[in-house]
Specification:
The chain is built from 5 helices and 2 strands, in the order H-H-E-H-E-H-H. The protein is mainly α.
Length: 114
C-alpha cells in the first residue's frame, strides 16, 4: 500500500495560495497557475481524441481562489488558440466550499449502476 503523506503538498499549496494574495509576489506565483492551465488545456484536447467532451468539471483545492480562475483562463486560451474546434468546451467549478471536498462531489456525480 502506498503510505505517502500528502501533508507537505497541502502545506506548499497553502503557501502558494497565500502568495497569490500578496501584490509583490503575485506576478511570479501566477506563472504556476498559468502553467497548470496550459497543461490542463492540452490534456483536455488529448482526451477529445477519444471522447466527445462538452463540459469539464474542475475539482480540488488547487482551484480555490484567484489562482483557480487563472488556471481555467489559460486552459480556455489553449483550446481557443491551438484547438479552435474545441473552443466550445465549458469549464465548471463548484462553490469554494465544495471545491475543498472534491472527491465527494465526484462520487455524487457518478451515474447510477443498473
Amino acid at each position: 500500500m502506498n503510505a505517502a503523506s500528502h501533508v507537505p503538498h497541502a502545506q506548499c499549496l497553502k503557501k502558494i495560495q497565500a502568495a497569490m494574495k500578496e501584490p509583490e509576489k503575485e506576478p511570479e506565483v501566477r506563472k504556476i497557475y498559468e502553467t497548470i492551465g496550459v497543461y490542463l488545456g492540452y490534456a483536455v484536447a488529448q482526451y477529445c481524441e477519444y471522447l466527445k467532451i462538452d463540459n469539464v468539471l474542475i475539482l480540488g483545492r488547487v482551484t480555490t481562489g484567484h489562482g483557480g480562475e487563472v488556471m481555467m483562463e489559460w486552459a480556455k486560451k489553449v483550446l481557443e488558440t491551438d484547438f479552435p474546434e474545441l473552443a466550445h468546451i465549458k469549464f465548471h467549478t463548484p462553490t469554494e466550499h465544495m471545491k475543498r471536498v472534491g472527491q465527494c462531489v465526484a462520487a455524487a456525480a457518478l451515474p447510477e449502476l443498473k
